[in-house]
## 1
Amino acid sequence: MEEKKKPSKLQMYTKMFASTFTLSMFTFGGGFVIVPLMKKKFVDELHWIDEEEMLDMVAIAQSSPGAIAVNGSIIIGYRLLGVPGALVNIVATVLPPLIILTIISYFYAAFRSSPIVSAVMRGMQAAVAAVILDVVWNMLKGLVKEKNVVKYFLLVAAFIASVYFKVNILIIIVVCGAIGTVDYMAREKKAKEGEEQK
């Protein structure tokens, strides 16, 4: 059986730019919409990143300031090709919205009064809600695979704090990050002690 040839750096840059540009061009409705598309492209199709790593990248992108689409692109680009990869992905992510918004702003008056554009936007809102629900479901499935009670507790506690007590999302992220760090360090320490006893 012939071994699959690894793509060259130039091929990876080109493929990454084309993929990210296309995803950004056809992603409507906010940053979270791009997450399942990135997963499908870089995890399922290209196999450049594994699913668990993708979830970690999404968590980092969400907890950092700025748009999640741009943050996610930077992290993926950096992970695959370092700083040049991050720069390529920034350009690929920002360029399509910049072009589209420039065109829309030029014809803003015509777009604003068009009933067709209004109808399209209403239809897109429903599609965006479905895509975001798909993101949440896929991330939840990835979380459920791990048998970690602390993660389940944080998931429920964060939901209750955000929805019912209106706690600032920044506080929730910082607290969950701190608890996750302590839990990880405790599990690592326990694993090392177990290895030493063997």
## 2
Amino acid sequence: MTKLAVMWVHGVEIADSRFADTSIALLREEFTRIAGVDADDALALHTAFWAPEYERRQDTLLRRMGGARAEGVFDLLDSLGGAADRGSVGALLGLVASGLVRSLPGTPDFHFPTLRWLIVHYLGDAISYQAGAVDRTLYDGVHRHLAQCLHDLAGEAGTDAPLCVLAHSLGTVVASNFFYDLQVAGGLHTSGSAGVSPEVADELDDTPLERGETLGWFHTLGSPLALFAQRHPDFGTPLTVPHPALAQRHPRVGGEWVNVWDPDDVISSPLRPLNGAYGDAVAEDRTVHVAPWWLGWTPLAHPFYWNDVRVIRPIATQLAMAWHRMQDDAAPRSVTVG
């Protein structure tokens, strides 16, 4: 039986493959409650963990900047960052508090180590990834992880399974570029990308899901896509969601691009106002207020999107409706003779 495929794509500062554990558990719970079906029977859930592509270089850079005495501090910050991405308020507050530390014993000239750690991870990921315009080595390295995830989903959910993508922060740019490249390779777009490289294509089989043709739902959470769109004339051409081929295989499952943003999150912004193409491609710029109330009115809301039921419940509802429509379409029809 074909399942619905769900992919999580993380953003920056991730150093833990369990980054989506809380979000996955929340989606399972909400889907099971809404659909009346065990999520494990209906959904294939996988994460695209691309952080290792940069992690070694960033760790080396931080050690060279801060020296051996700072290495343990950076390991602690990595641990706190991973916990924060799984929704731990305490870990996030620990990161914030550590930002007040000006220097470490033995490293008197290495000031504000937490802020430097943040800059290396936040700006470092973005700068390294966007270098793909000149040298595609890191760009393709990141996309290989998404391709591997898509291949795994095809094996578990079915080669023509409808696909839902939840992407956060820089991950929204990564996912958008990856699926846009697939659409260029498939002839859906003819400009703005060189398409899929041989290194990325090697991770994919020739199936509808792995060609990106079953992409139905794209949820961009806390997205900086508007900032990256500045590189293109008139902010460029967006991804097409849902892929037109999805309706040919699953006529009634639907699909849409929803951009979820919190006005207090300075990294995120609406996408529909960018240009007419984005206005047509993005069904909704959905305003939410994430994180606990006493924290959500600050820019620290940024890590909390996919750990917040106000974000996950509408996604679970969409998937529950789509799953039941798939079952109705697959049900045998009685034929009256006479």
## 3
Amino acid sequence: MDIALGTLNMVGLGLAAIGPAIGVGLIFAAYVAGVARQPEAQSRLQTIAIFGFVLCEQFFIISLALAFVLQP
């Protein structure tokens, strides 16, 4: 029974990785589109894109830590 619960935690971790992956893709797609429209705003958009990337990855790292902490 414990092995099944640990496996379920890892499946949940895999599902939790989908959200940040989609978020990072959307952030950089918007960044590329913004720079294509206004190249002079690249430095400002790049700062915002990196900040958004860090926030998305932070949520995954927290879910990764929780998956290992909650594993029996």
